[in-house]
Predict the structure.
Amino acid sequence: MVKHSVILRGYQAAINDRAAEPVLVQRQDQEFIPGLLDGFRRKLSADELGRVRNGSSPIRLFQPVHRTFNLVLLEAVCDRPGSPRLNPRDIASAGFVVRRGEEGWLLRDERVVGWTKPSEPKLDPDPTFRSPRLNAGNTYLNGRLAQLHAALEPPAERVSRLFVAPPDVCAAAGRTLLYGLVPVTSSERSEEAAPVDIDPDVVSASMPAFLLALGQSATPSIADPISFNDVIESAVAAPQGPLASFMQELRLMHHGWRVWDSGEGAVILALLNQISLQFGDDAQPLGDYLGTLVGRFILRDDNSTDDVALPDDWPQPDAALADRIRDAAGHALAARLQEGVPNEQRFDDAAASYQLHAFIRVRCADGCPPVLQWAPPSAPFQIVPWWESGGAPLHTIALPDFDRESIKKVKPNIAFKVPPKLAAILNQTPDVFLKGKANEGGLALGWICQFSIPVITLCAFIVLNIFLVLLHIAFWWLFYIKICLPIPKPKS
């Protein structure tokens, strides 16, 4: 039990250094915790233990996929002359939080709020350790008051545990040492959807030309009538041509704005139908006509190859109607993106900078609650993306030799269940696909196809090398993404 204040600071700080930041180290040994504790016993320096010094600011921490593990090292001392070490038995608990700028990864009632600025950054991140905001002098009444005011209590913050080194390690090092594994990956996602803001300029730039205001719009310059064969050929031969661009605009209206299958789209459809197209003596609303084109050429609902005639007259919307269509399209696109954009993951921002804030709870005399003591924040750090190379040894995959006898030994070890429609499509010749005539007809039989994963890997490796050479013309990347070295012959 202590009656004086305590200092939590970085590992092996100078005697009078009260603000030494936590030490971040990276380890690549498989038994990194025993190795770290052995380094504590031998009083190794932070550099000898693997202090992160990669010459950048903020520093960069590799992920476990790089076979690298990140730890934070601290020590606890008494705030007294000479800074004697704190008795480990006086530490009730310890931990740290990772913050992104001023934001913490917050939780309320086990529901993940996500990155949000804490209202009180120095408040205990665990509400169970906080002193009651309202104190009636009675335990029962305090409990009821806490329930009534739970909604007003700031949310919890995700805490990672700090471990106190074993007594023999602390004794050998002459310091009360704490360490913890720094999280750099997480599957946690915010359970509160982030708002999706659509830039009005982006909506305007993506609007089909025939929906722009009078004087700015242009009718599609495509051949009359529209045939299915023309649509297929334009997609292959002229992907930037008028017909292919018109079909792309229809795809945007169907899949992006969802004009014909959503509440937001119904608003757009009603606005489109205020424009009337003329077909001889007949008239048809624009929205219904475009829906016919979508069903015929985009969705292929009726499997018909009949041509579709263009209207004799394609009126342009006035400025007010064009603005209303654009605004409705923006709302529909925001709603569509809200469904498709996943909630924020904890460490999914590759450009984000983080800091570690460590704390200990120190037992007090006379039965008082533990006192919270924060350490100075760590140096800012970023997380190296998974695809970037690390300093760990390479992953090695052995491939079978490319001869008949070796391949004979590679028996199928995986099977794919192929449903009838997919099997019918796959059993057709490649030229059918190139002509856009692949269909799901034929004998309705499903198949179980057995393959060998090593052979699949070998084929993928061969195809990969072919495409690397082809794309080398564009990216000039072969010299640093593929490095082949001879395998040395082992000594007898």
